[in-house]
């Protein structure tokens, strides 16, 4: 019985060490910004209902409480839940019935190891066209 407890103890310590290591490396990769110029993205919002593409970055951002924002023909951006609510003022199906979508201007910080970091919604405008919807 004593040996089983020791094995369980070492397994739990190992799992905890792996999780702390993953979170530390992800924080360095996805939060270390480059002191360069801010990147501004402007375009029509793409409303994607199901985010099934779960990669390392998306998992980290979800754990940090952020959401995915998509602009047509751009890479996914990660924004706060409050900013995400600005891009989804109502159900996109209702927006389709009313015949409007949103154009957003989003500012991102360049990351030291490439890509863009945490983003903020600067402004949104209503555009009289049908929204782009996907599952």
Salient structural properties:
alpha+beta, 4 helices, 7 strands, 39% helix, elongated
Helix vs. strand class:
alpha+beta
What is the oligomer described by this structure? single chain
* Helix and strand element order: HEEHEEHHEEE
Low-confidence stretches: none
Give average pLDDT, whole number.
84
Distance from N terminus to C terminus (CA atoms, Å) equals 51 Å
Overall 3D form: elongated
Radius of gyration: 20 Å
Physical arrangement of strands within the biggest beta sheet: 1-5-6
Largest sheet: 3 strands, antiparallel
How does this structure look, described?
This protein has 135 residues and is α+β, with helices and mostly antiparallel strands. It has one domain (32-134). 39% of the residues lie in helices and 31% in strands. A hairpin with a 5-residue loop joins strand 5 (101-110) and strand 6. It is elongated and about 70 Å long.
Give the topology:
Elements: H1 2-31, E1 39-44, E2 46-48, H2 56-63, E3 66-69, E4 77-80, H3 81-87, H4 92-98, E5 101-110, E6 116-127, E7 132-134
Parallel strand pairs: 2-7
Antiparallel strand pairs: 1-5, 3-4, 5-6
Give a short overview.
The chain is α+β, with helices and mostly antiparallel strands and 135 residues long.
